[in-house]
Amino acid sequence: MATKKETYTGADIQVLEGLEPVRKRPAMYIGGTDSTGYHHLLWEILDNSVDEVINGFATTVEVTLHKDSRSITVVDNGRGIPVDIMPKHKKPAVEVILTTLHAGGKFEQGNYIHSGGLHGVGSSVVNALARKLVVEIKRDGKKHVQTYARGRATSTLKVEGATRGTGTAVTFEPDPEIFGEKLKFDAELVRERLEAKSYLHKGMTVVWKDETSSPHTSVTYKHDGGIAEYLTKVVTERQKPLVPMGSAAFYHSRDNGVRLEASLAWTEATDEHIRSYVNGIPTPLGGTHEAGLRSAVVKAVRNYIETHGIAPKGVTLTAEDIREGITAILSTYVVEPQFQGQTKGRLNNPEVSGQVDGVLRPALEKWLNDNKSIAESVVARIVLAARAREASRAASQAVSRKTAVSHRLNLPGKLADCSSTDPGLSELFIVEGDSAGGSAKQGRDRRTQAILPLRGKVLNAEQASTDKVTTNKELQDIVSALGCGIGSDFDISKLRYGRVFLLMDADSDGHHIATLLLTFFYRHLRPLIESGAIHIAQPPLYRVDIGKETYWALDEPDRDRIIKEKTKGNAKPNIMRFKGLGEMTPDELKETTLDPKHRMSLRVTIDKPLETDRLINDLMGKDVSARFRFIMERASEVQDLDV
User: Fold this and answer.
1) pLDDT reported for residue 439
2) Rounded Cα gap, residues 69 and 166, in angstroms
């Protein structure tokens, strides 16, 4: 286990790269220039102060929102940012940190055992995107002050008298040139984040001062009960607990090699609600730590049921049944966290899942065995959920659409169906990946739009036998969802959706999956194409923000056209490229791809049947030489190659 390093000087600061053009592409660093990106600047500075608390160098963090709602100050009583001159750069360490990307004290584990900051990126990014920034450092009995603007120092580091104690104060205002004139800090959002921090870190005092209110408010948060106390608050706000909270909540803490805290309770809710954190940073998109928690809960409950011989008869308990109604708080600490995206919404460290599972499963089993009356209530609640699920499924099987009776009997479990029973109004989106499927499910119109996520690339129907096609799980799920059968059982009158959209990433892999699906539809469900039911969705590849307006571009030429036509005066376009559908928020996916009023799509038609048949056989068949000829004949036409 890493050891804590008590000294912290300029020698601990490493510079990995030179300054990058953060102001030109802020979305690469903070996720966007909307309100979320605006507040992300504050979270970066706040997390730096909390890092001092996590690692035992500070006890108090104070945040003050000033009267204009645009400037804010974060103060901690930690060690203070180093101020000594770095010989290589001939500048104070604080200036190097604030004006250079990848400069900081978090690359060496001795300085910070656990860190929520961006490894030296956060402070400099905030500085680059701030109209003004002032840093005040108490260190070595002196008060040091330096000012900055838009990433550059506007004064030298000066000593402004003697002082007691140590710490750092950062005051900054986001630059309206980047974020526009309308955005301001949301006082309630900041307050909620600070209150959550106080629960996550026992012993930390958080002071919140709001100068925008009249009269000014000042609130101090300190919760010695930690996340167990936090769980009580969350459960009380959301749903009634299954049994009184005093005894119902499982809590476990461990710090010998795997530092984590977890608290959970079963409630009367019909969903599961998990709030997870890594090194004090919220991870709203979950990740491997949440996967470990879910796995631990399912295994522990199954083991308890098996050990005590109380498995119910006539019903099968699924993992979803066991987790239904759970409210949980999970706080993990990872030495070198790997996050998905710059805004740290999802933890990707693969080893963390096993670590969390290995710690929580035996602890939860012990808790269940030590609290048998509570455990019996939990198991009874799980059995009730399972029976309700099976009853719901049986009821749904009895419901027939106007044009179909028996085809609803075997719908795939991962299909998020729509409520409409009219195929003329219903749409099915076949989506690439569970991540994009999750966003699509949240952004869809539940009344008329159904979502079926696929995992990976489907079977090539041109090279596979009919038996293999009909037994393939992914393709069978599609057939089951459509309801019209396949082969000799095909009946288009039983089609459950009037329109079927192939919604894939706008990259080469997405195009390949769409081609595989089109091959399947052409060879085995061709009447659907001929009737005009099959469509290819057109998700944007780029988001272009020019001033206050947002435009969506399908590809590079479309992006360039928008910039040329819409850019006026000194306005600078802000461009964000989506790596995949999973990077789009549900609202973005709805606005650009799902909403019939705004979306773009291509209807698949067969204009030249013989040529289409030959082309599919050449491109997707077993004869490799045909594809070789196709590539060689058209190699000169390729301008951009997506590898």
Assistant:
1) 84
2) 28
Tokens of 36: 């979320």
Helical axes 609-620 vs 508-524, angle rounded to 10°: 120
List 432, 474, 477, 583, catalytic entry: 432
Per the structure, the count of domains in the chain is 2
In the set 320, 509, 530, 555, the catalytic residue is: 509
Q: Look at phi and psi of residue 226 and say left if phi exceeds 0, alpha if psi is from -120 to 50, else beta.
A: left
* Region of residue 547 (phi > 0: left; psi between -120 and 50: alpha; otherwise: beta): left
* Predicted pLDDT of residue 1: 47
Task: Tell whether 263 and 124 lie within a shared domain.
Answer: no
Contact 127, 99 (CB under 8 A): yes
> What is the pTM (predicted TM-score) of this model?
0.53
The CA distance from 586 to 285, in Å, is: 12
Percent of the chain with pLDDT over 90: 38
- Give yes or no for residue 193 having a pLDDT over 80: yes
CA 99 to chain centre: 29
Q: Are 130 and 72 in contact (CB under 8 A)?
A: no
- State the amino acid at position 5 in one-letter form: K
Tell me, yes or no, if 108 is annotated catalytic. Answer: no
Is residue 273 located within the same domain as residue 331? yes
**CATH value at residue 280:** 3.30.230.10
Instruction: Evaluate whether residue 83 is within a structural domain.
Output: yes
Question: If DSSP codes are grouped into helix, strand and coil, which group holds residue 202?
Answer: coil
- Cα separation, 151 vs 473, in Å, equals 54
Domain boundary among 358, 390, 422: 390
Q: Are residues 174 and 55 in the same domain?
A: yes
Q: Whole domain around residue 276: which residue ranges?
A: 226-390
Residue 432 annotated among the catalytic residues of the structure: yes
How far is residue 289's CA from residue 340's CA, in Å, rounded to a whole number? 13
d(Cα 332, Cα 11) in Å, to the nearest integer?
30
Strand 103-104 vs strand 250-254: parallel, antiparallel, or unpaired? unpaired
Indicate if 642 belongs to the active site. Answer: no
- Within 10 angstroms of residue 411's Cβ, the number of other Cβ atoms is 19
The confidence band for 404, taking pLDDT boundaries of 50, 70 and 90, is very low
On the question of pLDDT at 494 being above 80, the answer is yes
Say yes or no: 175 and 248 in one domain. Answer: no
Distance separating alpha carbons of residues 135 and 582, to the nearest angstrom? 38
Name the least confident of 26-30, 304-308, 609-613, 628-632: 609-613
Look at the chain and count its residues.
Answer: 643
The answer, yes or no, to whether residue 14 has pLDDT greater than 60, is no
Q: Is it the case that residue 249 has pLDDT exceeding 90?
A: no
CA distance 150 to 22: 10
Q: Please give the residue that has the higher pLDDT: either 137 or 1.
A: 137
Q: Is 509 a catalytic residue?
A: yes
Does residue 324 sit within a domain? yes
Pair 131, 38 in one domain:
yes
Q: Are 128 and 23 in contact (CB under 8 A)?
A: yes
- More confidently predicted of 263 and 637: 263
For residues 233 and 238, what is the distance between their CA atoms, to the nearest angstrom? 9
Lookup result for tokens 């749903």: 239
Angle at 343 between CA 342 and CA 345, to 5 degrees: 115
Stretch 360-371: mean pLDDT: 93
Catalytic residue, candidates 12, 175, 505, 545: 505
**Which residue among the candidates 306, 507, 565, 587 is catalytic per the annotation?**
507
Q: What percent of the chain stands above pLDDT 70?
A: 85
- What confidence score (pLDDT) does residue 362 get? 93
Q: What is the pLDDT of residues 213-222, one digit of tens each?
A: 989 999 999 9
Structural tokens at position 249: 């909540």
